[in-house]
Amino acid sequence: MKDTMKGKERVTYENREEVKIVNLTSHVIRLFPLMAAGRVLRGGGGRFFDAVTGEEIPYVAFDPEPGGLAVQVVTAAYRVERWVHDAHRGILVPVAEAKFRLHPPAWEGDMRMWDGVWFIVPTAVITYASARWGDDHPFVAPLGGSFAVRDEQRNVIGTVALVRTVELGD
Question: Could you tell me which residues are beta bridge partners of residue 162?
């Protein structure tokens, strides 16, 4: 089965899962095509272009969800709570703690109630979710590192994939 996007062939997946994705972060999440990974983009007016070729790069924007669903970050930013000494390298390393609270309290219920809905949250939340609910959670986060899409100043402006934590099998 083939699908087209602006006249170009792209891969479609027969075993895909149909879900609604809701952004619970406080900022827009931009999802670029895989070919944008590692490319530097320049933007203006809500459009992004390859900094070398000038080709326009399409994306999908997930705006923050207005209303009651939210991930409340208890600390406004990651705050250094302690320092550890790496004796091998002879340096002090700051260790920050990400503190967050999931709202509404329904998160403590049966996660199957969210079947068909996935929520974009900060990475720290999916780590917690995996420890709390195992593989049975509806949380994803923007994938960083080499999957991040950056502008000419090297600021992250989006990603090419979302990540979901699951337990590694034996």
Answer: 142
Q: Are 124 and 25 in contact (CB under 8 A)?
A: no
Burial 112-129 (b: 16+ CB within 10 A, else e): eebeeebbbbbbbbbebb
The reported pLDDT for the residue numbered 107 is 54
**Structure-model confidence comparison of residues 114 and 65, the more confident one:** 65
What is the average per-residue pLDDT within 89-113? 64
Distances (CA, A) of 22 to 49, 61, 110: 26, 11, 19
Looking at residues 80-84, what average pLDDT do you find? 72
What's the Rg (C-alpha) of the chain?
19
Among 33, 30, 36, CA closest to 61? 30
Beta strand segments in 2-153, E: 2-5, 8-11, 20-23, 29-31, 40-44, 47-50, 56-57, 60-62, 70-73, 79-86, 91-97, 100-103, 117-120, 139-142, 148-151
In this predicted structure, what is the pLDDT of residue 30?
A: 92
Check the CA dihedral 156-157-160-164 and report its sign: positive
